[in-house]
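Help!! Second protein's tokens look totally different from the first
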Amino acid sequence: MKKQFNHSSAFLDPYLRITLFAFLAGAVLAVFGNAFALQRQTKPTRNVAQKQSSKTGVPRTGPNFWVQTNGPQGGDGIALATNPSGHVFVGTQGGGVFRSTDNGETWTGINNGLTDTNVRALAINSSDHIFAGTWSSGVFRSTDNGDSWTAVNNGLEFPGIIALAINSSGDIFAGTPGGGVYRSTDNGENWILVNNGLTGFYVPALAINASGHIFAATWGTKFCTGVFRSTDNGDSWIEINNGLTNPCILSFAINENGDIFAGADYPGDVFRSTDEGDSWTTVNNGKNTSNGINALLATSGGAIFAGSYGDGVFRSTDNGDNWTQVNNGLTATRILSFTINQNGDIFAGTYLGGGIFRSSDNGDLWIEKNNGLIATDVRAIAIKSDNTIFAGTYGIGMFRSSDSGQNWEQINGGLSAHFMRSLAVAPNGYIFAGADFVDGAGGVFRSTDNGQSWAGVSEGVITADVRALAINASGHIFAGTYAGGIAGGVWRSTDNGESWTAVNNGQNCGLIWSLAINSQDHIFAGTAGCGDGVYRSTDNGDSWELANNGLTSTDVAGLGINGNNGHIFAATYSFMGKGGGLFRSTDNGDSWTEQDNGITATDVNKVAINSLGHVFAGAVGGAFRSINEGNSWTDVSSGLIAAGANVWALAIDSGGNAFAGTAGGGVFRSEQPTVRPSPTPRPRPTPRSRPTPP
């Protein structure tokens, strides 16, 4: 579960879920069916609020339950493409496709008809038809500049597409993560498998040279299988690995002379071939990175750009003989994609929320261009009593909105960790944020000035990912950490985070996923990965006991307590496709019953409860609401992008407005309050005195 990104590339990154060996272990279909719902789903549609229902406390959902707020902005720029008009298209993880018609200054989500918003590849043919390869739903085509999309999958038996290339005749080639290469000769209407001669069927990169020869990067069941070439339009393939000392190829670029460049995974080699792949030479001089090369670009001016997974961009102006790092202005250094327009402006797509950067001077300076690009992964939300919203993203830190999500500002001053997992507001107004340890930073951070600045308050003490935070009425802070041994478990601070003490007496599991505190200051801790389920403490954390009777799913991602009656709700995950869902305890955790009639998702992330006791569940598969204590549920995913998206976080403000943090769509807000506001009393008119008749 931990996500410690060191060297290597996004190709094998568990966060992107492109894990080669998962497919080769026989779990391909299961992964497509479920695991990628875990990633980002997203994008805009803003509707006018509907009239309140006449039934107290139950609002009309209208056309959509949710509307996307204006942020936070950013996202994963997994695929980039530019058409002859200079319009730039980016495929994101969970947010679908965005288009810019003004050179990246602004972006608009264009997902009409796109049922899978996890877009891994883009290609544009000579007729300006756009093809989008998705992780689990095959290929979509747009013939109207992205305004609408149609699935074109006839014959495409493998649903994941991670590479696309189009030759001069308009034939399309699609690389899959386990199914090899498919070809369409009729603009995507029909596909056939063209694997003759291939020995590896995980194909992360495709390229076609001026002669129409096709190059495929392949990975096999146990090892990388290098580069294959087809000179007969994909009918047959031959291995061309002479001199290729690292066969784990991730990317290609071909310059105007026909020289082929291949970027590899760790230790981050670049190879060059001047003879159509018959032989390869390593060209790494000056490219001081061991991270994978996920993207390559050859410009008409003769420059070659290499995008690394963690060390940014390298440029060569001598055909790869020498490289220079060119990261000025590049605040996100995990590069996934490149494209270039006719003016020579270069666009770089980055990972973990960094979004898109543009360079107009051959890479000397990069400028972030994320206006309108709302494809962020929001893992935590907290709302203060004045309705200021705090959103913790996984990759680009903290954001704040004081106007119900209309505007967001990034507030990372002093925040060394940017992979946020939990948030809590103390009675004194201090904000506490918990983060995963990535790139050496993590733990608990505190802001005493409404998020303007942050300070780490757990350095040297808490060394594990902080997945949960809860604060009791006395201001005692509890941090749930996710690690085995003494590093994990629950930590307590009674002095606003100045010092911390491990409080795990009676606990046998250091893998804490969730925390909740009831009105009696009883603490509940949900665990994951150890089969223990829920622990309860009635003495401020000094001792714990199991409270699992009836809890048949023991990976507890979220806990929520109904403030009206103390009933506890546990959001759980399935194991190997079994179990999961919602459980309820009406006796302080002594016993649990499954309460998920109507919940179609098995993996539930979070629970939030409004002032009426209506329960909201955020899941891998959307959002659900119960107005009867969990006895039955209604799917309220409408408006999320895509519907059935992964909802990581839920919170409800003082006006009853619900907010959802999603994987790839930023923050969504319920179109209207989830509770009916009290009517404003109208003063009765004062009767006028009538004149006395004469």
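Here's the second one for comparison:
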Amino acid sequence: MITISDVAAGKIKDILKAEGVPNHALRVSAAAGGCCGPSYEIMIDDKSGDGDTVVEKNGAKLIVDSSTAQVLAGAELGFVSDERGEGFVLGFPNGAPAGGSCGCGGEESKPKSNGGCGSGGCGCS
């Protein structure tokens, strides 16, 4: 199952508080992908549904549907802030999901909570 880094948990709580919905959660879902495999959407959600898994860390909640949970098995939701901007990233310490190949931007040298396709993407220089 997916895990949440301490930094990402703090950001989730900050974002939900700023949006005026501190009791909501973030939802991550996988969609058909391109050259890097699946793409992911992260949105605010107020409830989980049948088959959803709720992952919680330090009071921050992440909702994952069953098909996305299979794709993200072993991943970690992190948060990065660097010269390219800031945002949530999915790190895959055990390798990218099947069908994906990442490696742009030097993610391999960063801690596992700060790497993955979301922080670089294909075709980056």
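Reply: Different proteins will give different token patterns, so don't panic. The beta strands are 3-4, 25-34, 37-45, 53-57, 60-64, 76-82, 85-91.
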